[in-house]
Amino acid sequence: MLLTDDILDNIVTQTNLYAAQYISTHNLPPRSRVHGWSREPFTREELQKFIALIIIMGLVNLPTIEDHWVTTWPYSSEACSKVLSRDRFSLIM
Length: 93
Fold this sequence. Notes:
Blueprint: H1 5-25, H2 36-39, H3 44-59, H4 79-83, H5 86-92
């Protein structure tokens, strides 16, 4: 793969550091989804899933990013939701 494990691990480490810094410097509401980051840090496996979804979204052109998680016609597909939840994808984005 073009991205080695070392590169992926560095992206994950820096993303988690940024998230921790963001959480500590912003006055977020207690129910903010961003707090989920401290409960469930980003992992290499999750980064690989995220990259795969970005590639899929480039191949399957839908009007909005959220449409990739729609379960009703005309855009219904479970492909993305089986890989990563819409909320987690948005949080990573």
